[in-house]
Amino acid sequence: MTRRAPPIAEIKNVTAWRGSTRVFHGLSLEIHPGASTVILGPNGSGKTTLLKLLSREIYPEPRDETRLRLFGEDRWNVWELRTRLGMVSSDLQEAYDSRATGRDVVLSGYYATPGARPHHRFDEEERKRAHQVMEELGVTELGAKRYGEMSTGEQRRFLLARALVHDPEVLVLDEPTSGLDPQACFQYVETIRSLIRAGTTVVLVTHHIHEIPPEVQRAVLLREGQVIGDGRKKEVLTSARVTELFGTPMKVLSSNGYLQVIPARHPSGNLHDASSPGDRVQGNRGLG
Ligand SMILES: Nc1ncnc2c1ncn2[C@@H]1O[C@H](COP(=O)(O)OP(=O)(O)O)[C@@H](O)[C@H]1O
Ligand SMILES: [Mg+2]
Prior knowledge:
By secondary structure, the chain is α/β, with parallel strands linked by helices. It is built from 10 helices and 11 strands. Strand 10 and strand 11 form a beta hairpin. The site of adenosine-5'-diphosphate (ADP) has 12 residues, from strand 2 and helix 1.
């Protein structure tokens, strides 16, 4: 009998706070290896907070019924966790030391610091790996460029390279293409697609439907800290459910495995004049 790999994340009854805001109250969610997942939700729904729980930047409120296991373990050395779960967040992009060179950015993945430090030492193997990842991401030529002088797209690629030096099983991305122009966005999504195809499990949190790689098959809908939908992407990301999620009438379009949303019209012909999310999509429900 083969033993199934433990879930990447097993979240049960988690209550978590950011400052004085209770973001989650009894959140439960599992993420499994090999099942790349998008967690979709509007601003403030708790997406970034969820990632901070996974990266151990914040902890759940301690309660008997609460569980937060990563790769089957309750306790983690954060440094060791980084080698298995790589993360690229917008917080990191903003906080990163602008004086660091591209090469420093990638190598800093070995120390999990947001910049180069004088005490950092790297062995031959680490330098080789950093170089290899830069080649894979097509940024070798920018190795000497300073982070602060890079375009947003270049910065994003270097931060991805930084997360990839450990060849992590799981890659967690927070709104990976926000701020990128179409070319940089498409290129980035292509990179994510090839990582998934090569066996990396990607967990993407976002409100941008267009950046969901076709290979991602599971979608979780997060609203006000609650999971209001979870299942196969095709079944979860429908116009009706996305309308309910974002609280505004929208229509989901699909092409070549990608999704896009446009504003939907109420049957009256006006945009945004519906009284409830259900009415917006289904029209004259309950009339008469
Ligand atoms: N440092 C903080 N202090 C207090 N409240 C916070 C802090 N960070 C986030 N929040 C609040 O927590 C909630 C969830 O935020 P966040 O996880 O960043 O949402 P999302 O990433 O989905 O936009 C929001 O209501 C936000 O205002
Ligand atoms: Mg966020």
